[in-house]
Amino acid sequence: MASDHANADFGKVFCRMKGNLIKVDISDLECKICCRSIRDVDTLMRHFAQDHDLPVKFNACYGVLPYKLLKDNKWLCVYCAKTYAAFIDFKRHITTHFMNYNCDKCGTTFISCHALREHQRQVKCHRIAYKPRNGRAMRPRSNAEIILQCSSAYPFRTWMSNLNCVFCRVKTRDPVVFRNHMASQHEAYDVQAAFYKKLGKAFLNVDITNLQCKLCFISIDNFEDLVGHLKNDHQQPIRSDAQFGVLPFKLNDGSTWKCAMCTNQFKDFMSLKKHTQSHFQNYVCDTCGEGFITESAMIAHTKIPHENRYNCGRCVATFSTLDERNSHVKTQHTSTRYVCVYCVDKPRFATWEIRKKHLLEVHNYGTGGDSYECTICQKAFKSRSGKYNHMARIHRVIKDSELSYTCGSCSRAFTSQLFLDKHIAKKHTDA
């Protein structure tokens, strides 16, 4: 470029750009007017305006995508000071600082208005009838990355009752052991690796016990104070129009489960997590009023029919909302909770002991291993069908109502289609 195109017409560079940013190499950036070396594009534009009185429009995009190669052959991002050995990794990263256009339907962000229009023209986005509260929308995980990078919040995921490390296979039930593991093994972890593949668009769980700012090392009491501290005291680019992307928990020593956002306390972690999500529910179903953290979760919810989708487990009644079903259970099934599934009329009993007595006396059924006993020879079976088959084959004791499958070639009848087919194949081969 220096030898062959020193006096080239740079107006040709803008041919067919269609609003996209121009990639520029600023490895040896300097001002042509005064030959002063400049670090980045922002410093160059301020230099033009202050030292040379050039009419720079600071409220408009500069229109360039800066690439800077260091002497050790690593690519440097001049906006966040990250370095990359591979060019393709740096290329993917640098564009994240210029994603200023987003699709209103699917939330995808783009580097230029032209790219957004091409997306809207070629891609059929899923259009929703719901708008997020306060006009906020789910954006890339920029806020979550800043919080993890600048604080002592430790990311984790859960499986059953275990706390799992998102970087390795270590799992434990003790939050203190988990924090010691993170401090010793993953002190300088890669923030991008914290967002594991199965997380999808869900929020990342973080433990904010003993929360500190990594930039000034002061202790911070709660999550909201951390966000305000990073944004106001350290001028971190936390976007107020985007969600934080993390679910904060104060796990402490695991003996108590208190909400990190309010004063509520719960008996287990799953109850605490369900409650914590209610503080970040940005999308609400207009039909039933149920809240969701992400747009994708709400879309999946809307695909389920809302008319009478809640069934009563003790009768055939159906309800349109969960509150209606709970009210029905509390008012209609308070005294007779236990039902006999073997009787035709499905009688109900007030206590489990009364139903157990009924099962033993009427159906000869008792809890345990071999619960079904033959009334003639006292042989026990693990299932009721096994007992009936035994009585039908050995003792020829069969209720007339159970002989529903009659052979068309003789007078024999059977309890199932399988036995009838076996009989026909054995006795009536010609038929």
TrEMBL record:
Query: What GO MF terms are annotated?
Result: zinc ion binding
Q: Which residues form the C2H2-type domain?
A: 101-126, 257-279, 283-311, 310-338, 372-400, 405-431
Enumerate the Pfam families for this protein. Answer: zf-C2H2
Q: Which keywords describe this protein according to UniProt?
A: Metal-binding, Repeat, Zinc, Zinc-finger
Q: Which residues form the signal peptide?
A: none
| Protein name per the record | C2H2-type domain-containing protein
Originating species:
Parnassius mnemosyne (clouded apollo)
